[in-house]
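hey so u asked for the seq, here:
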Amino acid sequence: IRGFLHLYIGEEAVAAGVMPALRPDDNVVATYREHGQALLRGVSMNAIMAEMFGKQEGCSRGHGGSMHLFDRATRFFGGNAIVGGGLPLAVGLALADKLAPRPACVTACFFGEGAVAEGAFHEALNLAALWRLPVLFICENNLYAMGTALARSESQIDLTKKAASYGLPTGHINGMNVLAVHDAAAQAVAFVREQQAPFFLELHTYRMRAH
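ran it, structure tokens below
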């Protein structure tokens, strides 16, 4: 397997709760723990496994490995090995939909709480708010990012306050409760779709293993 396999064990309720709220024509951008989202989006299990082993039959033709799953047919745009790297991509996809236009489409952007310390997070939320872009920002807060406790890296551990500073409506949900996640995601997706404006969800979850 190329590099690390960043496991999603323990965080399944996030993907299982959010993904059914999306339509097939919506966009999905994820992190390097994207296996749950990819499977629920309909990316072939065989193609995902082949990609993990660097095979040509993989969904990224073996070039991406575990952290770069991609599937154009399901509008699944990764998988990104760079912390926070998916946030600007999500804003770009939403801007493209607005300019095309592809009315009432939503871009769901998954990222971990470690990404909130990156400049890309602030730039992405600022532009999404300024330009009223239909992005659902979904923070999978597993409390330890790659291995550092949130309180050791962030002075403000209520991440909804950072999103609210850019004027985004926010939600704070138990990410271990799949029904609560689904209800919150359905409401957030409906808001983004109807208002064509961004929304921020912080889902408290926990990963059981790192790699």
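The chain has a mean pLDDT of 93. The radius of gyration is 16 Å.
lmk if thats what u needed
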